[in-house]
Specification:
By secondary structure, this protein is an alpha+beta fold. Helix content is 50%, strand content 20%. It has 2 domains: 2-152, no CATH class; 164-274, OB fold (Dihydrolipoamide Acetyltransferase, E2P), CATH 2.40.50.1020. It has 7 helices and 12 strands.
């Protein structure tokens, strides 16, 4: 168990995944309170039980939105230990407990009593520890299974043509390249720029056409991959990636711009560069 908590843990959530988690957690709080009626809720009328439980659910959702979308992107690194991730989840639960205490104090006006605040925090931890721990364990297992699958993938044999003719779908174009010399290609409106290297000099060739047509013309050269709707990169010249899935970029081995990576292409990009 000690080793488990010290293992590195990567948790990158899309905005959609965050919203689903927030709504599911808020619904869990509402159902738990309304169905089991702890902390004296059973003494209230059914309508009051329902209204109060809904309120606690909404307070929980509000606090999770603040943490997930405002605080977490700044305070949490992309990769940390599994144990620290659990502690972060418990910190969020404590904050929810504080918020729910003040919500209850507004509904039932009372003098501030510190021990009741501690009781509210402890209750939030006890109620929240189940979904928080399950969520982290599921994500942890999914992360390591994905890593094992990637480790089991054998490197692809890179295939090259001696020469490639690039027209970009425009029969008036005919540019001939040694595909090994092409560093990357990018599109801008109806034009494609081919960045190639000769000796130590980078050159740019502009042609009228589409990147989709160019991608088809390069398809027999397996080192090229589409990392973005506007970019195709030669993996030979890709050094490493920076950022996370939401702002990933490719750092080239040669002087030049960092190439943006679409979220949908992130996994394929990492796999191509690691080969």
């Amino acid at each position: 168990m000690e080793n488990l908590f010290k293992k590195s843990y990567s948790r990158t959530e899309t905005p959609k995944e965050k919203i689903v988690f927030i709504l599911a957690f808020g619904l869990f709080i509402f159902l738990f309170l309304f169905l089991f009626k702890p902390f004296g809720l059973a003494t209230l009328k059914t309508l009051s039980q329902f209204a109060l439980s809904v309120g606690f659910g909404f307070v929980t959702i509000f606090m999770l939105i603040i943490f997930k979308f405002l605080i977490e992107p700044i305070a949490i690194r992309k990769t940390q230990t599994f144990g620290k991730s659990i502690l972060w989840g418990l910190l969020i639960a404590c904050s929810i407990g504080v918020a729910n205490y003040f919500y209850a104090a507004i509904i039932f006006p009372q003098i501030f009593i510190f021990k009741y605040l501690l009781f509210a925090i402890w209750t939030a931890i006890l109620v929240g520890i189940i979904p928080v721990t399950i969520s982290y364990i599921v994500t942890f297992n999914r992360f390591y299974k994905s890593a094992l699958r990637e480790a089991a993938i054998l490197p692809e044999e890179v295939l090259w043509q001696d020469e490639v003719i690039i027209r970009g779908g425009n029969p008036k174009n005919e540019f001939r390249f040694n595909p090994k010399s092409i560093v990357y290609l990018c599109s801008n409106d109806n034009y494609v720029t081919v960045v190639s290297i000769k000796g130590e000099t980078l050159t740019k060739t502009h042609l009228r056409g589409t990147l989709k047509a160019v991608e088809s013309e390069l398809s027999r050269n397996t080192s090229f991959f589409r990392c973005h709707k506007c970019y195709i990169v030669n993996a030979v010249y890709a050094d490493h990636v920076t950022g996370n899935i939401q702002n990933m970029k490719i750092k080239l081995k040669l002087p030049g711009p960092e190439i943006p990576v679409s979220r949908s292409k992130a996994a394929e990009t990492v796999r191509k560069i690691k080969q």
